[in-house]
Every structure is written in C-alpha cells, then in structure tokens.
C-alpha cells in the first residue's frame, strides 16, 4: 500500500518555479492560489487551476519542498483544471538542499517520465527505486499542442528518519571492542554517505595476524580491500581491491552494503552488486581492538592518519546490527568520537551542465583587475576527449586566448603571431573533477592543472582581455573557432580571484547562457553497469558508449556475436579442411570459445579434445592403499566439454590397457581394484564392451580374460570424458600396467539439422518466453512456397518481438522495448518463397538492432540514446505463427532455430503438436552434403541440382577441378564491378541503412598450383589507390607474401614448399592498424603488365610470369579461372597470352579450402616423383598450396569501415569465424559479382 504524502495540501511557501518576472527578476511562485498538490483535484468541486509558467520562461520547472527529508516512492501528474494545458513528458530531479540536484533515472537508465494526454486524467509513475529527499523538481519536456504547460502533482511516500554524522577530513569515529580481538565468520555492514571529494577512507580495521578490511573512496569509486589470513596479500605492496560504483563524489547520498559469510562476499553500492571470494584459506575476519570510520588513525598519535580521510556525511551506519552513530550521539564508552558533528551541513557547490555538443555556452563579464592581465580558475569534469573550455578576446585584434581539451590533454593556445601553445594534463576526460588555472599577469602565461607543476610561457607584452569570457563554447556572433563545444560540468568559477555566482546567471542578472542546466552536474557513467558483453572494454563520451571487442572472440556493437562456428560440423559446411579451430558451442552465450582439432578426412567430422597426459603411462608398485592416480586436464572447461558432448550425436574415448599380473576386479567379491572417474568425478568401474551398470570389460563377455593388450572404447556420453584413472593392483612381483587414455572424440551436430515442417497456418510450436532484456540474437533457416507467414513471435502487454516473411521477397523484424514499434526489413530481388533454404539472423542489443537475410546487405537500426533498454516479455514464444488473428501462419520448414546460442528442439515439440511434423522433406534437407566446395543444393520436383556459381569447382556436384595451363605470357585479370569496399557507411539521416555483413572477420583466398619455375608470379591484388598485394614463388622455394600500402612495402611471411609432405604449416602474424589495403579493384593470375608501384622483388617475379598449372582459384565469392573459361567475352575478365583448360589439377590430390584469421597455411598431399614429369621447386612431385593470407585479415578494417575509429588492434590467431556469406550460412542466390 503506497502512502500519500499529500493527504493535506502543502502550503504556498512549499512551491517554487522557474518563471522570471518582476522588476528584479526574482524567483517567485506563479498562480499559487490555484496550486493544489493533489491528483484528486479533478473530482473536487472546489479545485481549480494548477501550475503554468510564464511564456518567457526559458527553462520552466516546478519545485516542491516537502518540508523535511521523505522517502518518495511514486509521483502522479494531472493537467490544469478545465483547460487545454498539460505536460505529456517530464524529467524528475531531487535534492536535499535545493541547490545540488540529481536526475532520477529508472532501472534501464531512462529518465523520461510519461505524462498526460489531457487535462483531467491522472497518470501515476512508480519509481523503480525510492529516493530520500526533501525537494523535488518537475521539468517539462513536452506539453499540449493545443494549449500550454499545465501541471498538478501528487507525491507518494513516507517519512524518513536517520542518524547522521559529518566528517571534516580530520575526524573519525572509533568503535572499540569489549575484548582485545573480534573474530567473525559473518559480517553485515551498511551505511549511506555523500561527499564532494573523490578520495577518502570510510571504514578500516586490521588484526595482528594480517587480516584487514578497508572501505575507501578512490577516484570517485568505492574500493573494498579485504584479507582473511592470506600471507601473500600481507606481503603485497598493492593489495587487491574490489571496485564498485562511479561518480560517487556528486554530493548525493549513496547506499553501501557489505555482506560476508566466510570467504563469500557481496559488495553493493546503490543498485550495483559485486560478488567475489576472498583470497587465502581463512574463514574468519580477525580485527584487533577497534574499527575506525572516516579515516585510519595512526596508533599512539591521535589526529594523525595513514590515508586521506573521508570528508562528507554518513547516515545509518550499522556494524553487525550495532548503530554506531547512535552510540556516538549517546556518548557510549565504546565509541571515541574525534571532532565529528551530528548533522550534515556540507557546503553545496553550484555546478552547471553543458548539454549541447554544438550550442552550449556560458558568457561572463570580466571583473576589473588593477594589476594588468587577468586570471581564471574553475573546475570541470567530462567524458569527451575534445572540447573548448574557455576563450577570451584580447585587446589586440585578432588575438584570442583559448583553452581546450584535445585528445584528452589540455591545450592552451594564444592566437597571435607567432602562435603560443602549451599542453598539460593527462586523461582529463576521466569523469573526475579537475582544477585548472590560467594566469596572464606579470608578462607571462601560467597554466596549472590539478597538482601538476605549472607550465609558464614568457610574453613580450601584457595581455588584456577585451569584452566577455566564454566557457564551454561561444556564440556564433562573437567568435569563430574550430574547436568542438565542451560537454560536461563546470563549477567554482573565479575571474580575477572573484567568485562567480551562477544563480545570478540563471536569474538573468549576470552574463548570458545557452543550453545549460544549473545547480547540477548531470553527468552519468554509461559504462556502469558495463553493457559490453564477454569481457569487452567499455569506453564512453558524454552521450554514448562503445565497446572494444579486441581479444574477446566476439564482435558487434556490444561484443555479443561470436566470431567462431559452434562445431566442427559447421566448419565443414563452410568448406574448411582439417585443422585446429576455435569453436563456440553456445554461440553468443557466456561460455566462450575453445580450441579443438577438427578431423575432416573421414566420412564423419570428428571433434578432438586433447588432455595433458597423451603419452603411455607405465604403472608398477601400486595397491589399494597406495594406488596410482592420474588426473586429466582437458583443453576446454567442464561447461564447454558438456556443451560439445550434448550437441554431438556420438562421443567416445579410447582406452589402451596393457596389463601383466594385474587385475581390474577382485576375484573373490568382484570389488574393483582399478577404476576411473567420469566428468562428474563419479567412480566408474565398467570398461569397454559393457554398459555402465556392469563391473566388467569386453574380455569377460568373450571369456578370454588374461594378461593381454586391451583396446576399449568408452562411449556412454553422460560419463565422458575420463577425468581420472586409479590403478591399484601392480604391487606383486612382475606386475605392471601400461595404459593410454586417448582424447575425447565426438562427431555430428544434432542442432544443424533439427527441423520442423508446418502444414497448417493455425499450428505453432510453443516455447518458454524469451528471457533477453538487454540483448539477444535469433537465427534459423527456412524454406517455403507460401507468400507470407510469421516465423516467430513473443508478446507482452506492450513490448514484443516478431520475425516474419511479410511478402514473397521481404523478411521483417519488428519489436518494441518501450520506445515505440521499430521495424527492420530486408528485400530480396529473387523471391524467398522458392522452396530453397534461406538464412535469417536478427539481433537486438542496447546499442542497435540488425537483420541479416542470406548474403543480402545487413540492415541496422540504432537505439535511441536515452530510450528504454529492457525488453520485458511475458507470453510464450510462438514459432510458426503469431498470436494476432490477422497475421498469417507459416507454411514450410524451419531448421536450426537458435536463440542466443541455445538451439530449440523443434523436432521434439513437433512430435506432440498437431499440424507440425518433425524434420523436413527434400533432397537438400539432410545432413549429408550433396554439393561440395561451396556448391549450393537446389531442390527440383524429381531430384536436385548443384549450383556451382559460388564455387571454384565445377561438375555435377562441384567436385571437378577447374584448371588452366599458363605459359610465360599468360595472365587472367578479374576486374570488380566497383571498388571492393563492401562495408558502406551508415547515413545519419536514415533510421535504418544497409551494409554488407559486418560479421566477416577476414577475406578468404585459396588456390593450388604445379610448377617447376622459380621465381614465379602466382597472384596479385591491386587497389584503386595504387596499393597491391602479391603472392610469389621465390628462388629459394618459398612463397613470400608482399603488401604495399601508401607506397610502403611490407614483407609478411614465407610459405615453405620444400619437402613438406602431409604437413600443415601454421603461421601467426600481427598486423598494425596502419597496414591497410582498401578499395580492391582487380585480381591478376600470372604475368603482370603494369608494375609501376611494385617493389623490385615483386616486379622481377611479375616479369617472369607463371609457367605451370593453376587450379581452383577462389577469392571470397569470385572464381577468376572459371570466369575466364566461361565468360571470355565478359568486360570483367581480361585474358592475355595463351590460356588452355586442362586436367593438370587432377595430378594433385583434391584440395580443401583452408580459411583462417591472420594466418598462412600450406597443405601438401602425397605425390610420387617417379610418376610425374613435373618437379616442383626442390623435386616435390605435387604440391597443393592453400593460402589464407594474413594480410587479408586486415581488410576487415579496410573494406568494412566501422562506425567508430578502430584502435590499433592486432589481428591474430589461426582460428577464425567463417562469414555469413558462405554456403552453409546462405545456400543462396548468386551475388552480382559472382561468376
């Protein structure tokens, strides 16, 4: 039950507003005879009127004084009685004193409250968290279009009492224990504090054995240092701190709660909680003699403190249920109060906030100075790394003095001939208050920042100010500057040592201003909480935040999307070959990626997880009393292993067990003498050939148990992998065991082909409501012949999400998180209801929403800067139709439906749902790949065909190599239709724009060759800006890669081709951000004609050309050799010299496309020198080279320009994430540049 503060009307004196009237422009109430603080006035016959500001009021607001601090839980608003005046949205501020204000924000960070749509209806708004305050201020944002501002308000809450103590920076409270030492296994400490200082100790206690607890403000954040009997921390010079909160030096109350049980600790500041576990083995906190609050006094020296003391106020300070302030007020003997007061009368500093990035400014007249020159001092805080802080016109035109933030440092510029500049400070955009002083007296300019040494520059003449001083920016009529406007807060302004009263500016008595908020610093930390997922680093400016996903394995605006495939099976479907890959079994879930080996040489694709003990182990002298124990640590975490096993169709682990005079079981009672532990560390005594319940092995079944070599396979998935083996019977003479536990091997991916067929429009599969308040992604494949249908939908009272085929060629993603409906659509020129598989992926996070359909350009929609963030859904998730009657259900197949990395089991749900069946009919719907090497399977009425347009191969199933014989003069040049910069900038005007998939993490290139020539030019890529990349075969038999950017040539690596039979060469290279190759124009195979920009080594190879066989050349979706053979008349293909199609590629083993991120790889297959007339380099008969050039990894940054400037990221790792435009993700229509 919410109690109402307004059971009685507040007196007239309780109201104040922003209207400025009267001869002296004093702040006085307006229409106070009709000001009713009740939302029930519409039903009261005596009620009339309400508040309405003057038309001339630049910043209208209504302020309410509750008389004392109250706990406010809700507010209600109503328009003016019997009028067309109301407020449709507003902001709510609160203050203890009426001077320092703070904006109330809801849980999702939004500060806008919904108001009225007419003058009589009452609109209630419950606060997401209550506020304890005396003053409230209602600031209208929007109001009636047919009338004017009109407002009646009601405030709900209850009275609030507290015990308060004030610390002046040199005082403290000491709570002394009744005994020498206090030992506790459980602690609960709570308090509230407010301060305008960013540093200071709130709480400290320590013991002689090294235990301690310290709670302190540091850089406006709260640090908790806690040690329980950990000698390592006692010896450490910098103890580990847990940090919570930000901007806590804002002169407003903040609540703190510390809860500890043994080593488990919760630290909560306001609504942000940090859970952690203390280091060391201790379970109790042993503190000797006393706890101190407000500082750390030096023993034996009262008033002397080891660290900076807290300066501010605390209230309701409780230590394990003891009211410390109450004891101090009652002068109890266990409390020693050092110079504290029991009230909170901290001075309130009036700050102003510069809101606009283009038009905010504060103009102040200069105070007279008789000594010549002038001085300016003030404090500022901001997140922006650039902005104009202060400027003044000097007497001599056009001289001007400017102080600005440039690249996070202060830069003072005197615009004269010659210019005078000096720079000072570092990271002054860290959100903390910084003090700055500029003094031009005594024929010098002195710049001082915080406590740094001053920077002084001598002058030839005395500088004098002419006119006004501008802060934060300046009006367009008075100055022209290229510096961006300052966004942030400024306080404590002194001009010529005279303080400036900002109240006078607000009242119009002094100076002028534009786009400012007074009596508050309305800064907010957009990185608290950190909305960057998976460990992404959050950085911010005044209006937004951004995430640096480097090194996380994820990408996107909030580091939500995994760079890696979910399984080895998924990599195979992208055309990848055997090798080490990072897989992310839960996609965008919390687990992260792990490195596995994908063995794709067999019919099945095996995922191999190795452990730390791969060599055979010999065991002798073990017994049950002293057994041999071996633990196995795997390359993945237990959660990752479990996810891989669950996702796989089959898993197994091989055990080789060679024994002599050693028993597995006791022959008398059958008890095990050796056993192993499963993934849950449960004891298992069965071995290969038997079910888990049996304490036997396969030889028992065969009746031939004796000293022998045993090979067993453990395949019960619930028990895999083996975490430990115990051997206890090798103590007899001549007894021994030699065992080997193989890696965990799994094949199959049950999720990829999990499908359901929808036969009736009214049918749907029901799943639990989507739980994804801040971010989610949904991906699936579909095929249909219907013109429209809802794929899935999840509703609530207001919020919803819906993905649908809205027409034969359009997929639509619509949603509402409280900011109004938002719609993203992707249109395909070929219709999507063609009975072929199509890929859809939607993502929504607090920064943006996106929609991807096949290979079509990705559509984006940016989220409102200060809008609602939380998506709150309540109904079930409907798959196959919507819940709105006029929407058409889906008819067709859906498979691989995954939500935030979790695949929904469509097949199981379909078994119990009418009108839906498990699986999906059709030749192209199975898990067996009918078309190879990026070939696309297309359903036909009586079979299927393979579309090889995306593949470098040909033939019925895209397995036939396309090979061409070159001679010295031969070359093939493929010219792109436009500069190959597939990442397009987003328009700032459009609500949603397109860009090609930003999920690509690299460019992919693959080819094979046979030659006896060296040096030889294999391949070159040229750009429109005279940059190039070249792959040549050098004289020493290596294949170096060269990249020239901005006329600077970079040599990257060699691919050694000499005598490398059946071996993979894995290389990692780091590329700096200034090594960029952009706007690719053409690709050339063989001899290069134009070589003006080439280096000498590359030019020499280019003149030599290439003699031999090139086969199956692939560059992303382009196959240049196929283009040359099939489109000889095309304007995109230029052929010089003889070019003959041949079967020379068949001399080599069929290649596997190898794709990687920032890597070089060489695969070579067996050849027979005696059977081939060609000798490759040093006599190797056949070499098949697949190069995923590390240089191309950089192109992500060049071809896909990000919205924000990328930092100097290194592009590393062999593991890669294959892009969405591979045939697994797409199985789609030909691209306009595909040949």
TrEMBL record:
Domain F5/8 type C, first and last residues per copy: 8-158
Record InterPro entries: ConA-like_dom_sf, EGF, FA58C, Fibrinogen-like_C, Fibrinogen_a/b/g_C_dom, Galactose-bd-like_sf, Laminin_G, Neurexin-related_CASP
PROSITE patterns linked to this entry: EGF_3, FA58C_1, FA58C_2, FA58C_3, FIBRINOGEN_C_2, LAM_G_DOMAIN
Superkingdom of this protein's organism: Eukaryota
Record's keyword annotation contains Transmembrane helix: yes
Domain Fibrinogen C-terminal: from-to ranges: 559-611
Residue stretches making up the EGF-like domain: 523-560, 921-959
Keywords of this entry: Disulfide bond, EGF-like domain, Membrane, Repeat, Signal, Transmembrane, Transmembrane helix
Residue span of region Disordered: 1208-1235
Gene3D superfamilies assigned: 2.60.120.1000, 2.60.120.200, Galactose-binding domain-like, Laminin
Composition bias, Basic and acidic residues: 1218-1228
Segments forming domain Laminin G: 164-344, 351-521, 754-920
Protein family per UniProt: Belongs to the neurexin family.
Protein name: Contactin associated protein-like 5a
């Amino acid at each position: 039950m919410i109690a109402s503060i307004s059971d009685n009307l507040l007196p007239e004196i309780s109201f104040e507003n922003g209207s400025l009237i009267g001869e002296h422009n004093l702040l006085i109430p307006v229409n106070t005879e009709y000001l009713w603080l009740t939302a029930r006035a519409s039903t009261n016959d005596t009620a009339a009127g309400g508040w309405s500001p003057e038309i001339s009021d630049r910043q209208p607001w209504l302020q309410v004084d509750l008389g004392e601090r109250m706990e406010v839980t809700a507010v209600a608003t109503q328009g003016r009685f019997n009028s067309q005046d109301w407020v449709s949205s507003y902001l709510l501020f609160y203050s203890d004193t009426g001077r320092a204000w703070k904006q109330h924000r809801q849980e999702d960070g939004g500060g806008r409250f919904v108001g009225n749509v007419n003058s009589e209806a009452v609109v209630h708004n419950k606060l997401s968290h209550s506020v304890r305050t005396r003053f409230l201020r209602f600031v209208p944002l929007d109001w009636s279009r047919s009338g004017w501002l009109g407002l009646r308000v009601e405030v709900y809450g209850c009275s609030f009492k507290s015990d308060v103590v004030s610390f002046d920076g040199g005082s403290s409270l000491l709570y002394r224990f009744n005994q020498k030492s206090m030992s506790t296994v459980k602690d609960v400490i709570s308090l509230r504090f407010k301060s305008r200082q960013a540093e200071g100790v709130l709480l400290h206690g320590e013991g002689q054995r090294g235990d301690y607890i310290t709670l302190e403000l540091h850089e406006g954040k709260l640090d908790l240092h806690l040690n329980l009997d950990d000698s390592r921390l006692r010896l450490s010079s910098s103890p580990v701190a847990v940090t919570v909160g930000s901007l806590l030096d804002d002169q407003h109350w903040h609540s703190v709660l510390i809860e500890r049980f043994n080593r488990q600790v919760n630290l909560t500041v306001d609504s942000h909680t940090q859970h952690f576990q203390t280091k060391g083995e201790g379970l109790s906190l042993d503190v000797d003699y006393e706890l101190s609050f407000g500082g750390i006094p030096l023993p034996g020296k009262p008033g002397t403190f080891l660290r900076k003391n807290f300066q501010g106020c605390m209230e309701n300070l409780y230590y394990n249920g003891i009211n410390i302030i109450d004891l101090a007020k009652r002068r109890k003997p266990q409390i020693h109060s050092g110079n504290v007061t029991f009230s909170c009368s901290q001075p309130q500093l009036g700050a102003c906030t510069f809101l606009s990035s283009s038009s905010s400014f504060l103009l102040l007249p200069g105070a007279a100075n008789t000594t010549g020159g002038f001085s300016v001092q003030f404090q500022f805080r901001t997140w922006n790394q650039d902005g104009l802080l202060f400027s003044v016109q000097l007497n001599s035109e056009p001289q001007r003095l400017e102080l600005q933030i440039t690249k996070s440092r202060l830069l003072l510029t005197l615009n004269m001939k010659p210019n005078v500049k000096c720079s000072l400070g570092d990271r002054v955009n860290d959100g903390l208050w910084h003090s700055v002083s500029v003094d031009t007296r005594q024929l010098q300019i002195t710049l001082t920042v915080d406590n740094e040494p001053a920077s002084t520059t001598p002058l030839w003449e005395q500088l004098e100010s002419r006119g006004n001083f501008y802060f934060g920016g300046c009006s367009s009529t008075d100055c022209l500057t290229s510096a961006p406007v300052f966004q942030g807060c400024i306080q404590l302004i002194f001009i010529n040592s005279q303080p400036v009263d900002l109240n006078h500016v607000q009242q119009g008595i002094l100076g002028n201003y534009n786009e400012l908020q007074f009596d508050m610093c309305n800064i907010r930390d957009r990185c608290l909480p950190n909305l960057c997922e998976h460990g992404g680093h959050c950085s911010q400016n005044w209006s937004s935040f951004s995430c640096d996903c480097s090194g996380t394995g994820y990408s996107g605006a909030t580091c939500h999307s995994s760079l890696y495939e979910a399984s080895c099976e998924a990599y195979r479907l992208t055309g990848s070959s055997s090798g080490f890959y990072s897989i992310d079994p839960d996609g965008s879930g919390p687990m992260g990626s792990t490195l596995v080996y994908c063995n794709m040489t067999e019919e099945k694709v095996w995922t191999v997880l190795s452990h730390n003990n791969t060599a055979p182990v010999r065991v002798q002298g073990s017994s049950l009393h002293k057994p041999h124990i071996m633990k196995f640590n795997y390359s993945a975490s237990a959660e990752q292993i479990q996810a891989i096993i669950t996702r796989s169709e089959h898993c197994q682990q091989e055990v080789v067990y060679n024994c002599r005079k050693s028993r597995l079981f006791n022959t008398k009672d059958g008890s095990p003498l050796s056993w192993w532990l499963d993934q849950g560390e449960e004891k298992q005594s069965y071995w290969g050939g038997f079910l888990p319940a049996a304490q036997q092995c396969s030889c028992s079944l065969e009746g031939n148990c004796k000293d022998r070599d045993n090979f067993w396979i453990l395949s019960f998935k619930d028990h895999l992998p083996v975490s430990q083996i115990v051997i206890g019977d090798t103590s007899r003479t001549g007894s021994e065991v030699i065992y080997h536990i193989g890696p965990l091997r799994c094949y199959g991916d049950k999720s990829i082909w999990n499908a359901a067929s929808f036969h009736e429009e009214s049918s749907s599969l029901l799943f639990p409501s989507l739980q994804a308040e801040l971010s989610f992604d949904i991906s699936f494949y579909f095929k249909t012949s219907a013109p429209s249908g809802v794929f899935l939908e999840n509703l609530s009272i207001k919020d919803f999400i819906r993905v649908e085929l809205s027409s034969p060629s359009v997929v639509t993603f619509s949603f509402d998180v409280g900011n109004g409906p938002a719609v993203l659509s992707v249109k395909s020129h070929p219709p999507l209801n063609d009975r072929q598989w199509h890929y859809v992926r939607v993502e929504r996070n607090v920064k943006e929403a996106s929609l991807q359909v096949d290979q079509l350009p990705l559509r984006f929609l940016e989220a409102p800067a200060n809008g609602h963030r939380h998506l709150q859904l309540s109904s079930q998730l409907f798959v196959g139709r919507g819940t709105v009657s006029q929407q058409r259900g889906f008819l067709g197949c859906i498979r691989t439906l995954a939500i935030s990395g979790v695949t929904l089991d469509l097949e199981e749900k379909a078994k119990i749902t009418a009108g839906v069946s498990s699986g999906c009919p059709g030749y192209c719907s199975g898990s067996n790949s009918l078309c190879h090497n990026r070939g696309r399977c297309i359903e036909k009425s009586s079979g299927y065909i393979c579309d090889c347009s995306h593949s470098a191969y040909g033939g019925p199933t895209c397995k036939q190599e396309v090979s061409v014989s070159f001679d010295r003069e031969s070359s093939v040049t493929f010219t792109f239709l436009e500069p190959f910069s597939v990442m397009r900038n987003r328009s700032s005007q459009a609500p949603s724009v397109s860009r090609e998939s930003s999920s690509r993490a690299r460019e992919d290139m693959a080819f094979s060759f046979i030659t006896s020539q060296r040096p030889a030019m294999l391949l070159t890529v040229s750009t429109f800006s005279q940059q190039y990349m070249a792959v040549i075969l050098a004289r020493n038999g290596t294949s170096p890669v060269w990249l020239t950017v901005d006329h600077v040539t970079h040599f990257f690596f060699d691919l050694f081709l000499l005598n490398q039979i059946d071996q993979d060469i894995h290389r990692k290279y780091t590329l700096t951000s200034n090594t960029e190759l952009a706007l690719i124009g053409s690709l050339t195979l063989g001899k290069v004609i134009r070589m003006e920009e080439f280096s000498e080594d590359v030019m020499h190879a280019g003149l030599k050309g290439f003699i031999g066989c090139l086969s199956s050349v692939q560059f992303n979706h382009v196959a240049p050799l196929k283009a040359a053979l099939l489109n000889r008349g095309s304007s995109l293909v230029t052929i010089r010299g003889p070019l003959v199609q041949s079967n020379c590629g068949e001399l080599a083993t069929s290649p596997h496309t190898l794709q990687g991120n920032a890597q070089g790889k060489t695969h070579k297959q067996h050849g027979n020198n005696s059977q081939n007339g060609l000798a490759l380099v040093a006599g190797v008969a056949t070499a098949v080279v697949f190069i995923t050039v590390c240089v191309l990894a950089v192109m992500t940054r060049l071809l896909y320009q990000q919205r924000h400037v990328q930092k100097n990221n290194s592009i590393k790792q062999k593991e890669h994430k294959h892009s969405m435009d591979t045939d697994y993700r797409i199985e789609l229509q030909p691209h306009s540049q595909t040949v």
